[in-house]
Amino acid sequence: MKQYIKVDLYGQFDDDTRHEFTYPSKLLNQYSFTEATVWAKSISDPRALHGKLCKAGADCYVIWGNEYGNYFSHITRNSRDSRGGMAMVTFFVERNHICDGKDIYEALTKLSHKFIVNGEYSNETVEEVINDIAVYTSSKCIPSKINKNTTTTEPTYGYKVYANDEELIDLLTFIAQEGYASYDKIILTKDGNTKDNIAIQHITSSLRKYYNIYDAQDAQANCRFINAQDTFNITYRKQGFDNAIIACNAPHCNCEYFQIKGTSIVLNDVSKVNVVFTKTWYFDIRKSTDNTCVDESLIELTVNGRIPDKSNRKLIRFTEEELKTLCVVPITASGQHYHQYEGEVDLTTTNSQILIKMEPKVSKIRVQFNFDNSISSSPVFMQIDETTKIYKDLTQSDRFCGYRARLDFNNVYQVDIPKNPKPVRDYDYNDYQSSSPKWVKWVMVILIIGFVAAVGVLSVLYWSEIASFINNLFE
Fold first, then answer.
1. Does residue 451 belong to any structural domain of this protein?
2. pLDDT tens-digit readout, 213-226
3. What is the span of the domain harbouring residue 328?
4. Residues 6 or more apart whose Cβ sits within 8 Å of residue 78
5. Domain presence at residue 439
C-alpha cells in the first residue's frame, strides 16, 4: 500500500531553504511542480510555523489537508545546517486513505533520525520505514479551511496542546475535527513548549473519536462507521448453522472480535474467534386424521429430554459441539385432546422443521333427542373427535349443533328440539346479534296506537270540512 504514501524533507540546508528530498518522485525544480509532485506544493517554511508558537529548541508537529490528501509533519532543529535552521519531515497520505496515527508517529520519528541525523536520503531508506504500514480506505480527512478571507493571503494557524505521546498519537489519528475547518494548518505542541503572548488561536474543543469498520470473511458489522461511544453488532456466519450475533459495546479496544488500527476497526475472521454456533429446528405439528395444523400452544414437547424455547414459535437449538455426537434424538408430544406422540428425528437429514403427526382422542358420548311433542329417542352412542368444534360446544357451551343440551345424572346429554326446529343461537358466537329489549317494543306499539287514535279524533272533529273538500275535489 506504499503507493498511497509520499515523503518530503524541507528546510534550511547549505544556506538555502529547499526541498532536500522527496519520495517517490524527486522534485527537480523548487518552484515548479509536476503532476507527480504537486502534492508537495503546500509545504511551507518550518521556521514560520515553529517560530509563531514554540520555544527555542522545542519540537512540534503540523497537520493539514487539501484536495490531494492529508499531511503530517515533524519540525525540529536541523543539526546538519550550519546556521542552525529548521527541518520538516512530512508524511503524506493520499485523499480517501488513512493510516494509524501510531504508525505515522513512528514513521516520522524514524525518518527524522535517518534524514536529519544520519543524512540518509534514498527511496530505499524511506521504504524500509513505510513498507509495513497499513493503509485503509476512508473518506475522513483533515478539513480544509472554509470561509477563507479573500482580502489577504496570510495563512491562518490554530494549535492544540498534548500532554504525552499517547495524546499526540490520538491527534494524528482522529484528524476529522470540525474545529479544524477555520484554519489552514494545525500546529501540535507539547504542554509547556509554547511561547508567552502568542497570537495563534488555541483550539480547546475535545477530540471526537470515530471509527470506520472493515468486515472480514464470514464476519460482517451492521454499520460502516461509528463514533467512539456507539455500540455495533457483528454477525458471524457458518454454513449449515444459524448466524451468531455479537454485541460490541463502548468503550472499544482490541479484543477477540476485532483489532483497532487508528480510526479503523478491523473484524477478525470467524476462524480466529470463539463463537458458539447453533442450529435451530421449528415444529410442524399436524393432525394425523386430516393433516390440518395444530395450535402449538396446546402441545407439550420434549426433544432429547429438553423443553423447546418459545419466542414467536416453539423451537429447539443444538450447538455445533452437541451436533458432533447427536444424530437421532427422541421426541415426545402430548396434549389434552391428543394421544401421546413418541418418535425420533434424524438431525443430520432434517433441515429446519420437525414434522409431528398428532392423533386426536375420540370420546364416546350418549345423546338423547327430546322433541316438542313429548317424543324422545332412546340414548344413542356417538363417537366425537375431541378436537372438533362440536365436542367443544357440547362440553363447554352446552350446545349440540346449535340446540340446547344438558348433561343429566346418567351422563346422557339431553338435546331439546322444539316443534319448529330452529337452532338456538350460541351467545358466544361472533355472528350473534341481540334482539331489541322488550320495553323498546312496547314503546313502539304505544306510539302506533296513539297515532291511529289521533287520526280518528281529528277525523270526527273536522268531518264536515273533510267532506266539503272531497266534494269540491270531484266537482
1. no
2. 999 999 999 999 99
3. 278-358
4. 11, 12, 13, 84, 85, 86, 87, 116
5. no
